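Appendix B. One record, verbatim.
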Amino acid sequence: MSKFNKELPELTEEEVAFEMIEITSDDIDSLARAFSMINDLCRELSEEIAGRPAIPPESEIH
């Protein structure tokens, strides 16, 4: 039989729901920051690639 920690407070359904929302919000915020970083990196790489001279196709190389 599993042991139950009796020192844990009893939470109402409303309190549990608010805890879940808070945890989810933190996760969404972390994901938003990660997507922002990826977006910035893609923008920087696009600018770097656009600044490079064009490489001729192999058929044009003598």
